[in-house]
């Protein structure tokens, strides 16, 4: 299995809502584990306002299924309350993996 595809999503919490965004991301782990095509899924904190998600995939079909799945839909519904701006979502190519 060669991981060559990813999604990087950068998120900025509304002032004072970073803790709630962190809780949202922690809760998103379970649906990510259930996705057969998602090889790795990371939720991370940069600082009290900046967070992110990084996922990896073997196929474009798996990446497309993920972006059309439960986690992005939940993020879209919660974004008005939790996020200061729209998520910065980027499809990336993974160049090297250890």
Describe this structure in words.
By secondary structure, the chain is of the alpha+beta class. The chain contains 4 helices and 4 strands; from the N terminus they run βααββααβ. A 4-stranded antiparallel beta sheet has the order 2-3-1-4. The protein has a single domain, classed as Alpha-Beta Plaits.
Number of domains: 1
Number of strands: 4
> Order of strands across the biggest sheet?
2-3-1-4
Tally of individual helices: 4
- Please identify the structural class as seen in this structure: alpha+beta
Helix share, percent: 25-40%
- The average pLDDT is 95
- What portion of residues belong to β-strands? 25-35%
Query: Quick one: overall form?
Result: globular
CATH topology: Alpha-Beta Plaits
Runs with pLDDT <50, length 5+?
none
What is the first-to-last residue Cα distance?
13 Å
Radius of gyration: 13 Å
CATH structural class: Alpha Beta
Give the helices and strands as they follow along the chain. Answer: EHHEEHHE
CATH architecture: 2-Layer Sandwich
What's a concise summary of this model?
This protein is α+β, with helices and mostly antiparallel strands and 98 residues long. It has helices spanning 18-27, 29-34, 60-67, 70-82; strands spanning 5-12, 38-45, 50-57, 88-93.
